[in-house]
Amino acid sequence: MIVFSTFDDEEKVEVIVRNAIDQKFAACANVLPLRSIYPWKGKIEDVNELLVIFKTTSSKEPDLINFLEQCHPYDTPEIISITPNSINSKYFDWLNQTLL
Question: What pTM was computed for the model?
Answer without folding.
Answer: 0.94
